[in-house]
Amino acid sequence: MSREPPNYGLVTQAIRSRSLTGFVEHHDPLRARPNERRPNSLFTGPSVPYQKQAIERSWTEAFMGTAPQALKAYIDMHTVPPRDDVYGHFCAIVQSSGMGKSRLVDEFSRTNVVIPMNLRPLGTTGFPPADTSVRQYFSSHGPFITQHKSNRLWLCLLKALFSETANVIKGMTFDSHGKNRRSFYEKVVCKAEEKYNAPRVVTLTLAWQP
């Protein structure tokens, strides 16, 4: 396992200035670094296309095990009924790359409401890919921001996120469905009509007996 050697210049600068700004700017995980190489990446070498295809296909296979049910039971244990002694309603799923963390969350989302968000650092590889627009939303404000600004960025994002989510899952009135459901069936009907109106080829088999 390789480790990055200590940068004594940054250490000296931090001691003299009594600030960790240099460390934050140097190790900003969302900032692209020129010619950055990650030897421990899963996607290196000539077999990259096959590795990617294998991972993508693995998500279409039936999920094995009861991890989604265990995750649901763990969440319910800390939230049902509501508890005041819980510091924060979050948990970490820690495991090596390729062990199924994201697949677990995806399987969990089949029976529970989940809004996935992937802030994978720029220049790294992995599956699922990063949500680049969200990552850019944060990284465009620089590597070092105040706590107040960070809170504002997150609050604004969460407010917009839940607002758009409500627009997606709601919208049905007494007279009509929401726009997403209407759009879905409009596309279905359009394709059905194309197939129905396509030229038909009729094959006749004639049997002749003397």
Structural commentary:
With 210 residues, this protein is mainly alpha-helical. It has a domain at 32-138. 47% of the residues lie in helices and 0% in strands. It has 8 helices and no strands. The protein has helices at 8-17, 21-26, 48-58, 67-79, 101-108, 132-139, 147-169, 179-197. Helix 4 (67-79) packs across helix 5 (101-108). It is extended.
Number of E strands: 0
Work out the radius of gyration.
26 Å
Our count of helices gives: 8
> What fraction strand?
under 5%
- Binned, the helix content reads 40-55%
Distance between termini?
Answer: 84 Å
Query: For the report, how would you describe the main beta sheet?
Result: none
Mean pLDDT: 76
Structural class: mainly alpha
Order of helices and strands: HHHHHHHH
Overall, the morphology is extended
